[in-house]
Amino acid sequence: MSKIFTAAALDHYSVPELRTLFRQAQLDLAASEAETPERRDALASLENISRAIAKRTASMPTI
User: Fold this and answer.
1) pLDDT recorded at residue 3
2) In the chain, domain spans
3) Alpha carbon 43 to its chain's center
C-alpha cells in the first residue's frame, strides 16, 4: 500500500469498502519489515481505517 489513508480520504468509503482497505493494510503490515516507512504507513492506515469504521458503525441504527 505504502500510502497513508487520512480521515478525510476515508469519508468517501462505505463500511464494506473500509473493511476491504483494513484487510489490505493488515496484509501490508504483515509483509513489512520492522522499523520501515512501509510498516509505519500500514500502522497509521490501520488506525485511521479502524476509527472510520467505528465512527460509521456507531451511528448505524440497530434493529
Assistant:
1) 86
2) 7-58
3) 8
Distance CA 43, CA 14 (A): 21
Q: Which amino acid is at 57?
A: T
**2: pLDDT confidence band, cut at 50, 70 and 90?**
low
Which residues are CB-neighbours of 10 under 8 A, at least 6 positions away?
18, 21, 48, 49, 52
Q: What is the pTM of this model?
A: 0.86
Among the listed residues 62, 58, 51, the one whose alpha carbon sits nearest the alpha carbon of residue 11 = 51
Q: Residue 53 has which C-alpha cell?
A: 469504521
- Chain CA centroid to CA 25, Å: 6
The span from the CA of 49 to the CA of 44, in Å, is 9
